[in-house]
Amino acid sequence: MFFRMSMKSLVICFFMLFCVLSYSQEKTIDSLKNVLNHSKNDIDKAELLNAIASEYMSSDPKQMRDYANKALELSKKIKHRIEEGNSYLNLGNVNVILGNYPLALDNFSNAQEIFEADLITDLKNSSEIKKGLARSYGSIGIVFSEQSNYAKALQYHLKAVKIYEEMKDQARTARIYNNIGIVYQAIKEDFKALDYFIKAQKLQEKTGDMTVGITTTNIGNIYLRQKNYPKALEYYTKSKNTFAKSSDARGLGELYNNLGSYYWQTGNSSEALESWKKAIVQFNSIDDKFGISDTYSHLGNFYFSQKKYEEALDNATNALKLAKELDVLEQVMNSEKLISSIYEKQNKLDLALQHYRYYNVARDSLISHENIRKSVQAEMNFDFEKKQTIQQEAHEKRELLYREQNKRYQLQTIFGALFVILVFGIIFLIYNRTQLKKTLTLQKELAEYEQKALHLQMNPHFVFNCLGSISSFIVQNGTDSAIKYLSKFSKLMRLTLEYSKESLIPIDKEIESLQNYLELEQLRSDKMFNFSITKSDQIEDDIALPPLLLQPFVENAIIHGLIPKKEVGKIDIDFSLKEDSLICMIVDNGIGFEKSQELKAASVSIHKSMALDITRKRLEMMGTVTSKTSKVEIKELKDENGKPIGTEVILYLPIQYIK
């Protein structure tokens, strides 16, 4: 109950905090449209379009999206970077409202990229840019909070609050404090949550911010959870007084729901019922069906505890009807379970059994929905981290380029003032040659850093797949086998950690790692395949290659080549030398490359493996760093009749040595 209230409060703060503030909130949509129709300046039009989009936030998300897209198109056309960032923020807000969190995160990330880039180059508008950047951070924190990724939510909320504190923007600082408190409240760290709620309350009271009612309600919820009833009532009373002034029906409805719980816990049944009835009145006034369903659920549980089964059944049925209409699986599940319990108490066992079955169906659907959500969240987080890494690299490049451009401009100005044209020409030539050498060196260093970044992406992918294998193995093979599997996995992880920070490792280390990995996969698949690893005598011990380079191809051979074959298969791995290249060959006798591609194309799996793409990029970076050929060949093996008999993967790597 308390957590749901917190998430609603967070969404309310989100709407109030991240709307466009360029125009007074008293201006209606009609007046803004009127100004837009008479405006001839594209800069003003872009700002007006964003302002209108913001006004539609609480009433019509589709209209908000249409105006935000128009603002984005115009801002890009006239290269108005601040309004382009604001357009992405508005589009992100729309997608939060519509529940499309991956797209919302992408929109907010685009806004972040724009404002971070302009913060370096556009010093004239730095104040406006900082506001946009803080809003971007806060919005990203909102998305991660909604997805229950509280560590990331805190990270971005703290980035936002730092900017607002520096700008002495007390109103926005208070609301970010409130959101941070909500995150701590969700993870049951009540002491930290109270600290941030109270800091938010003080600032809101100082600035006359009416959202203080939400904050004091959150404080009351924490005290109620701690069974500190006097303190809970004190803060609920403050909230009630605030909401009475602000006419916040949703906030007041949630407050009455919590007051009902307070009175129930303190033994005042009549006041509890009165509070819940008031909650229904408030929610009905704004047609908040979720709030009404939640209140009916409270009433159903209350009457059930009082053994008033007919009243309990009426309220539970009403809660169920609204929950089904809203497709809120958790509320459907709880309502079905309560109805089943009521019928059981009334000795209507057939109906009790029927609704218990409905409860099981809702519970299974909720579990399935949650599993899908977690899978989507994992992929969303992976894509976001990858994009953030790329943005960080681009940001660093822009800073470096900006400094270099300033330096070049200053030098050119000094040389132009001091030397004649001929002397200046000679010096300019020497300068350009020096700069070219620096640029080539910088490009090589950047290529090395990109290769390291790709390697850092490879490790989490490898661990993620291994943990997935462990989970499947535990379910399929039992505890004893799982312990054996985990033992081998831990050995493999120790080997991985030994060289996780190295760009190159000895070839024997890579062979040992592959040996351990293949043993793990062999154990998990109940020995559905055999394998061999061979190394040419010509290969010296100090010949090296990047870690985890071959593992994705071996994994691909097992998953897409051997497992679909459904009979004992074989994988052969061979290392040899040819001229100036280290040859790594992986051969399997699976279903063949073309057939495996067809199966992958027909798959409906949510997860999309990035391992092979990352590995190909690592090979490109290796070629850039070493200035030598680095490539991969994949071909299908066929018998004399043209029937597929397996797949052959050959990696041509430049010969490198451990320094």
TrEMBL record:
<dbReference type="Pfam" id="PF06580">
    <property type="entry name" value="His_kinase"/>
</dbReference>
<feature type="repeat" description="TPR">
    <location>
        <begin position="134"/>
        <end position="167"/>
    </location>
</feature>
<protein>
    <submittedName>
        <fullName>Tetratricopeptide repeat protein</fullName>
    </submittedName>
</protein>
<dbReference type="Pfam" id="PF13424">
    <property type="entry name" value="TPR_12"/>
</dbReference>
<dbReference type="InterPro" id="IPR050640">
    <property type="entry name" value="Bact_2-comp_sensor_kinase"/>
</dbReference>
<feature type="domain" description="Signal transduction histidine kinase internal region">
    <location>
        <begin position="450"/>
        <end position="527"/>
    </location>
</feature>
<keyword id="KW-0812">Transmembrane</keyword>
<feature type="repeat" description="TPR">
    <location>
        <begin position="293"/>
        <end position="326"/>
    </location>
</feature>
<dbReference type="GO" id="GO:0000155">
    <property type="term" value="F:phosphorelay sensor kinase activity"/>
</dbReference>
<feature type="transmembrane region" description="Helical">
    <location>
        <begin position="409"/>
        <end position="431"/>
    </location>
</feature>
<feature type="repeat" description="TPR">
    <location>
        <begin position="85"/>
        <end position="118"/>
    </location>
</feature>
<feature type="repeat" description="TPR">
    <location>
        <begin position="174"/>
        <end position="207"/>
    </location>
</feature>
<dbReference type="InterPro" id="IPR011990">
    <property type="entry name" value="TPR-like_helical_dom_sf"/>
</dbReference>
<dbReference type="GO" id="GO:0016020">
    <property type="term" value="C:membrane"/>
</dbReference>
<dbReference type="InterPro" id="IPR019734">
    <property type="entry name" value="TPR_rpt"/>
</dbReference>
<feature type="signal peptide">
    <location>
        <begin position="1"/>
        <end position="24"/>
    </location>
</feature>
<dbReference type="InterPro" id="IPR036890">
    <property type="entry name" value="HATPase_C_sf"/>
</dbReference>
<keyword id="KW-0732">Signal</keyword>
<keyword id="KW-1133">Transmembrane helix</keyword>
<keyword id="KW-0472">Membrane</keyword>
<dbReference type="InterPro" id="IPR010559">
    <property type="entry name" value="Sig_transdc_His_kin_internal"/>
</dbReference>
<keyword id="KW-0802">TPR repeat</keyword>
